[in-house]
Amino acid sequence: MATLLSLLGTSLSVSQKFQLERLINALGLWFAYCAAAMVLALNRVLEFSSKRVCEMLFDGKKCYAWILVVIGYACGVQCTVNKPFYYYNPSEGAFNFFTLNPNPTNMNHVCNNLFKFFFVTISYALMWVLLKIKLRSGGQLGGQISTLEAKVSYLTQPQNL
């Protein structure tokens, strides 16, 4: 999208309403992606730590309820931005997600990104530690996870931790 806007020479003065509407949707999708990543991280940690709790929260059609959580999170975060001012700057080749407040920083965007970073990092680090503990205790994974899941999860984690 950024390339197309740059090639078309789109600037804020040319299409302010178009840009604001599209960028509100784009940022909303980013918030939904972040929420989905956090739900997936929670699911993976529970797979390794408590299969019973994982099944209680995610088994069967319960996973569809998490779609509502993701959509609700994205709408909630996006709709609480006070005076959004989003635009594409072709000189920078960047989307700017500011507000029209005295402090133009979009705190919803900043807090979302920081929370997602820490939540996902801690969740996957915890999952990796739990996996190492289970594999070191004789490699018996019990009914917690399949051998294939363990191998794939172990192979995709950094070996230098």
From TrEMBL:
The keyword Transport does not apply. Keywords: Membrane, Transmembrane, Transmembrane helix. The chain crosses the membrane at residues 23-42, 63-81, 114-131. It holds the Pfam family 7TM_GPCR_Srt. This is 7TM GPCR serpentine receptor class x (Srx) domain-containing protein. It comes from Steinernema carpocapsae (Entomopathogenic nematode).
